Amino acid sequence: MCFLHVYSLPLLFTHFNCQNILNPDVLNEAVPGNIRRAEHFIGFMRKVVEHLKTRIRSVAGPTGGVKSETPLAFLHRMTNGTMLEAKPLRFAYSRLSSLLRTLQISNLDDYNALTDVADFSSLLASYSEGVAKFAVIMEPNSSNIPGASDPVIQLACLDSSLAIAPLFKRFGSVVITSGTLSPIDLYPKLLQFEPSVSESFPVSTFRPCIRPLVITRGSDQLAVSTKFEDRGDMGVIRNYGTMLVELCNVIPDGVVAFFTSYSYMESLICEWDALGILRELTKSKLIFVETKDVVETTLALDNYRRACDCGRGAIFLSVARGKVSEGINFDRHYGRAVIMFGVPFQYTLSHVLRARLEYLQTHYQIREQDFLNFDALRQASQCVGRVIRSKTDYGLMIFADSRYARADKRTKLPKWIQNFMDDGCLNLSTDLAVSQVQTFLRAMGQPVDQEALQSVLLTIEDVQKRNSE
Amino acid sequence: MVSKELESETIVVFDEAHNIDSVCIEALSVTINERGLDQATRSLGRLSSEVSRLKATDSHRLQNEYQNLVNGLIDQGLLDAPANDVGMASVSHLSMAF
To answer: How far apart are alpha carbons B80 and B74 in whole angstroms?
Structure first.
C-alpha cells in the first residue's frame, strides 16, 4: 500500500527527533542501570546541569572568550568534571522523555530548558567519535547588545546530511521540491544522496509576464550595493532612495521592497527621512513597514492591501529571511514589482557559520564563497517569487545591487527566472530601468489574449488523456 | 511518533524545501544559556518532588515504568529472564526498591 504524506519540514523533524537520528545500535543497548531509577536519573541530570553552569561561567569570566571545541574534547571535560560516564549520557534524552510520560507531566513547555540539556548531552555523547560532525562553540556574548554578558554554549551540527539520513534509509521514495532549489545539484551534495531523478521545469506562460531587471547603478552612474563597506556611503543611500521614488512613480498599485536586515532597513529609512525621500515617496504610495512584531506586521499588511485595493497605492518595506519573505504572497495588484535591495548574505562573522563553512570546504569541497552565494541567492529568489502566483499575473523582479550582474550570482537564480532575462535587462542604471518598467507595464496592461492563455492551460480532457498514457 | 506510523512504502514529499539543509542543521543543534540552566535546575526540583509524591501515592506506575525498561532489556536478550519462583521474587523485589 502506498500513501502520499505531505508534512511541513519542521514538524517532520521534531517527530524524527534525536531518538531516531541516534545510531540504532545505541537504542538497542541496555539502558544503563544507574539511570533506570528515576531518582538516580534526576541526580545524574543535576550533575550535568552543574557542569554546564561551570563551563558557561568560565566562558563569561575574565579568562573567557570565544572558544570552539570538538564534541570529544567537551565530552571529556564533562565526564572528568562530573565523574559520570559517557554511555549513560547518550540515553539522557530518551530517559527524560520516558520519565515525563510516566509522571504524566502536562505542561511540557515548562520542561523545554531541561529537555534541551538532555538533548545536548545525548547528541554530544553519541557523536563524539570519528570525524567531528559537530562543533561546540562557546561565546561570552550572544546578544546584539555590545558589552552585554549573555554567554552561550552551542552544540552546532555541521553536517546537514545527518538529520535526513534515517529518512532516506527508511522510506523507499523521497521527493524534495521547491520553486527555488537552485543550483539543483548542490542539494544532493549537502544531503549526501544520489538522486534517481533530478528535474527542473520552466514556467509555462503565454506571454513574458515576468521581467527581471538588474540595477547596478544610480542615474549618476555611481555603483550601488549593500556591501558592508558601502553602507555608510551617502551616494549609495541617496541613489537607493531616488531609485525607489522613481520606480514607485511609474509602477501602479503595490510594490514590495526587501532589505538584507532589520538594522540596515531601519538605518536606510532614517537617512531617507532626513533627505526628504520618504515625503516624496508618499506622493505616489503609502508606506508600510515589517517589524519584528507579528501583530504589527499583520496590521501593516492588512492596510497595505486596502491601500492597493482603493487605488491609493502602497509600498511594503520588508526584510529578507523574515516572516513576510517566506510566507506572504503579493499577487496581482498587491505586487506589481518586488525590489531586492542588495544581496541577502547571512551574517558572515557568525562562529557557527564559519565552522559549517570550514566543514563544507574540508569534507565536500564546497567553496565558502559558492555556498554563501547560493544561500544568499536562494533567499533573494524567495523574495522575488512572491510576486507571480497565476497565469494572468505579471510582475517585475528588480535586483538592485552591482554584484547581481556577476555570473557567479546571476547563474544561481532559478532557471525559470533566468529564462526571462536577456542582455537588455542587466547592468541598468535607474533611468534605464524606469523606461524598461514603463515598456513592460504597457505591454502587460493590454487585454489578455484568451486563445494564447488557453494554449498553456490543460482542460479536463487533456488531463484525462495524459493519465491514460 | 509520526514516523513510526509511516510504512516504508510511503512516498515522503518535502514541498518548499529550499531551506531543507538549514532545517536539518537546526534539528540537531542545541543552544544552552544561563537562563535555560536555571530553568533546568528548577525543573529537576519539580521532577524530584513529583517522583517522591508518586512513590507515596502510586508506586505502581513507577514500578511499571521500571518493569517495562527491564522487560525491554530481557526481550533483547540483554538481561536474563527470571526463572520461576526464585526469579519472580527477585524481580518484584527489584521493582519494590524503585
So the answer is: 6
Return d(Cα A76, Cα A66) in angstroms, integer: 19
Q: Residue A200 contacts by C-beta under 8 Å, 6 or more apart in sequence?
A: A184, A414, A415, A416
Q: Tens of pLDDT along A70-79?
A: 999 999 999 9
Q: Which helix (H) or strand (E) holds A429?
A: strand A428-429
The type of residue at B21 is D
DSSP E strands, A229-363? 254-259, 286-289, 314-319, 337-341
Q: Which residue from A1, A9, A116 is facing B9, i.e. has the nearest CB? A: A1
Distance from CA of A405 to the nearest CA of B (A): 23
A317: β partners = A257, A289
pLDDT tens digits, one per residue of A319-339: 999 889 888 999 999 999 999
pLDDT of residue B56: 76
Q: Which of residues 384-443 of A touch B (CB under 8 A)?
A: none
Instruction: Answer yes or no: do A114 and B66 touch at CB < 8 A.
Output: no
Q: Is B14 part of the contact surface with chain A (CB cutoff 8 Å)?
A: yes
